[in-house]
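@channel sequence for tomorrow's demo:
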Amino acid sequence: MHEAGWAKLGTPAQYFRIEIPRGQLEDAIPSLLQAGLNGWNCTLPHKIEMFRLAQVHDPTALQAKSVNTVQIVDGKIHGWSTDAGGWSRAMNEAWPRSVPPGRTLILGCGGVGQSIARHLAQTGCQSLTLVNRDPKKAQTLLRELTPMVAGQFSLRQVEWSPSSLQKALQETDLLIHGTTLGMKSDDSLPISKEWMTPPLRIYDTLYRKDFTPLVQAARERGCLAEDGLAMLLHQGALSFEIWSKKPAPIESMRTALNLVTGRNL
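structure tokens (generated this afternoon):
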């Protein structure tokens, strides 16, 4: 989708993949700079490490405490996060006027879950519930968000247990799934299919060429559900605008993504 964007602008640029093993990003940075790259995206598992290594942080990176978009400016590593912005654009595209959301539950308080939680703490929602398999991570995030929310809406953390999750979902309008469950075809569903009852909406930040098992199960239960492919598109468009300093040719990028995935975003 990025190369389709550059082609639309008539800009001679390339976008390609470089695989860097977990824990080796810092050692790889000098080679990336020496190669003359003007910027790059970071995905799992490098976003938090890239935040630490960036020399200049955009407010979006400071809010997310992670970096997924880098531009080299005067030899310095500038970092942005387009996670929350891409999610917000995708939400509004899928369900107009859905942001800020109502009663929201974030399942998984890792990278993308944290980014969206911090975004909602600043932009607002009706209520926000945090759930993580390791409760300490959710508790740490809760402590961080509490002064940001400042009592403007309900903020809580509940245990990842069948009884607690089922009860919390009965009081939820929007479930945001931020765990890795669903990346593999044999993964179990993050929540029981029987707990998915309209008018609950489900936004799965994961994406595959076909729809994720969570989205498929939710739709079978009659719930509105979307996966993260449109979020990927809008994350990419925001990155493109950072690099090009021009509006992203979003429809050209969308067409390219549709061709690769066989989908119709």
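heads up for whoever presents: The domain at 84-227 is CATH 3.40.50.720 (Rossmann fold).
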